[in-house]
Design goal:
By secondary structure, the chain is an alpha+beta fold. It has one domain: Yope Regulator, Chain: A. Helices cover 34% and strands 40% of the residues. It has three helices and six strands; from the N terminus they run H-E-E-E-E-H-E-E-H. The chain has a six-stranded antiparallel β-sheet with strand order 1-2-3-4-6-5, with helices on one face.
Length: 144
């Protein structure tokens, strides 16, 4: 699978609406924003970034889970809940990402495109969105 094929797959899924993929936006040639319906009526944004490396194409699924408070760390109970949820779901690695000037805790899932089939790519995307959204909702946050 290539990044272009992944983009085509997501466009088809957004048109069909069967997997929860609702909107796909291209943000340049190496970044996609996918809006996933995690539960009926609740949407969560996920970014997919393309990275080329010596071993082929790599895509990173970035699912923001919660905004970081300004000038203070994430509360201990929130940190514990995020780690526990991620360990249970095994959805991805934790990272801090900056989106529109704001820092977020996010789940990051690398996809080596040459080694993954379309069904596994969709599953990874939807699992990351669901895990991040469930954590964010548990903290009382709005949709991202």
């Amino acid at each position: 699978m290539t990044f272009g094929e992944l983009q085509n797959l997501l466009e088809d899924e957004a048109r069909r609406g069967a997997t929860g993929i609702r909107i796909l936006e291209g943000l340049g040639t190496t970044l996609l924003r996918v809006t996933v319906e995690t539960v009926p009526g609740r949407l969560h944004g996920v970014w997919i970034a393309w990275e080329g490396d010596g071993d082929g194409e790599l895509a990173r699924v970035v699912a923001p889970a919660a905004p970081l408070p300004k000038d203070r760390p994430l509360a201990a109970e929130a940190s514990h809940a995020l780690l526990q949820r991620n360990a249970t779901l095994n959805a991805g690695a934790l990272a801090i990402v900056s989106i529109d000037g704001r820092d977020y805790v996010a789940l990051v899932v690398p996809l080596r495109l040459a080694e993954i089939d379309p069904a596994a790519a969709l599953l990874a995307l939807v699992r990351a969105a669901n895990a991040a959204d469930a954590f964010e909702e548990a903290l009382g946050g709005d949709e991202l």
